Amino acid sequence: MVLRFLLIAALLSPTLNCEGQDPQPAAPAPAAPAASQTTTPANAAASGATTGPAGAVHLAETYVIGPDDQISINVWKEPGLSGAFVVRPDGMITMPLIGDVLAAGLTPPDLGNQISVKLHKFLQDPVVTVTIAAIKSKVVFIMGEAMKKGPMEMTPGMTVLQAIAMAGTTEYANLKKAYLLRDVNGVRTKIPIHYKEALKGDLQYDLPLKPGDTIVIP
User: Fold this and answer.
1) Model pTM?
2) Can you tell me the distance from the alpha carbon of 142 to that of 139, in angstroms, rounded to the nearest whole number?
C-alpha cells in the first residue's frame, strides 16, 4: 500500500510543481515608433511671412503742399471739422470755426500743427491729421512723339524714365535726341536726356523731375 502511494505521488509531482510556479510574464511587445513630428520655431512663420501691399499709399511727410492739391483733414472726434479740401490758387483752405488757413508751402505734419494751434481756441487738445488725397499742383509736360502729350501729374520722386514710360512713345520717337527743358534761376535751360544710359541703370542720367519740367521727344 505504501509502495503504491509513493508511486502515485512520484507521478503527480511534476504536475504539481508546474502548477505552483508563477507564470512567466509575457515579453513586452516592441514599442511602436513614434510618429514623426516637425517642430516649427515660434519665429519661423514670422521670418518667412510676407506683408501684403498696403491698402493706401501714404505720401512722404516731407511732401510740400501746393495749389490745387486735394488734402484730407481729420480732427479727432470732430466730424464737423473734418473733411476733404482743395487748396485754392492763393494757397489757402477754409475750415469751419477757424476760417482761412495757409496750406501751400507746408508739409502735412506742419499744416496739421498749424490747424491744431488755431483750434485750441475752441477745443481742448485737438488732434489733427492731414493726408494728401491727390497731387494736382505738381505737373510736368510731355511734348513731341509721345502717346500722351501735355501735362502729367508728378508722383513723389518721379524721374525722366518714369515719365517717358507713363507717357509712352510713338514709332517715330527718337529718344537719342530727347531733352529736358527746365527753368533755372528764371532761364529756360536745355538738358540732354541720355535715355540709353539711364535705361541701363546709370542713375546719374535718370534725372529726378521738378515741377514745371518739359520733356521733349523729337
Assistant:
1) 0.56
2) 10
